[in-house]
Known about the structure:
This protein is α/β, with parallel strands linked by helices. It has eleven helices and twelve strands. The strands form three sheets. A six-stranded mixed β-sheet has the order 4-5-12-9-10-11, with helices on both faces. A three-stranded antiparallel β-sheet has the order 2-1-3.
Amino acid sequence: MPVVRHHLRCLDCETEIGASLDLSCADCGGLFEIAYPRLPEGGLRLPLTPLPLGQGGTPTISFDWPDARRLRLELKLEYLSPTGSFKDRGAATLISAAWSAGATAFVEDSSGNAGAALAAYAAAAQMSAEIFVPAGAPQVKQDQITAVGGTIHAVNGDREAVADAAAQYARERGIPYLSHNRSPYFSEGMKSAAEEIAEHGLPDAIVLPVGNGSLLIGLYRGFRELIQLDRIEQMPRLFAIQSMNVSPLAAASRNQEPRDPEPTIADGIAVSRPPRLAQMLEAVCESEGAVGVVSEIEIETARRTILQRGLYVEPTSAVPLAALSRLQERGMLADDERVLVPLTGSGLKSPPIR
Ligand SMILES: [Zn+2]
């Protein structure tokens, strides 16, 4: 696959630099997005060097959800990815970027799924992965990281403390800190999901769980480029669903200060200060979607329902399903509309509590 020519553009001051692993603009501290002198014609992926573990190409199935029978609901089974979550799409691209830059080791911080994905792709590229996790991260996700050769650094404190510890460790040892939440390469890898969805026939709406927003941003960028390439006419409305207990995007969409985070079983989206909040809001607004929140009881009920229908997913995957009936009640999803929900993570990583 050819290398797609690209550079990095600051989201705040629009300064452009060449392809690099830099996480923020030297002029203003803003985060980067990937920019192309010419849109890639062969597809939206950014195949710097392919690391073939089999990411992407996940199946889509029709599904009859009890609270949303008037919708034509489809589920995209992202949890069937190589490491059991959609994060493999972003990990393949980010690790490819690091490999192309000559890195043989890197530091990363994650609560689990992204760490597992990055550690697996690092193994494929024969790179050392130093993964910082919160001390309370699910053990099964930590085990997955060490099983493929990653090194775990457990840190007491919140997600910010974990990120700070990772950045400091990287600085002291002179190895790259990839930060999948700040690097533009991770969400760029998610664009492949937009392309697959378009190939399958574009739905009217996509309802997805949102924490750091990499899938939301990747889908939005992917659909926008497909419009520019005249391959689709308009994009599906994007509905970003959060746990009520950790809902900074919902607060920002109402111009409110976020309330203090509380524990949630949806650990994959327990992100109280996502660095790309403005881009997430843009994706929701420009696609004419909305932000919604669901309670812990609603997440648990939805998860029980989906498990009992034979789909073994982690609680985060139940978050958008829990929101469907309310989105319908509020007129945001109409009868007979085609609605797609990505099931983002495997239940094997988060077994039900007995
Ligand atoms: Zn800047």
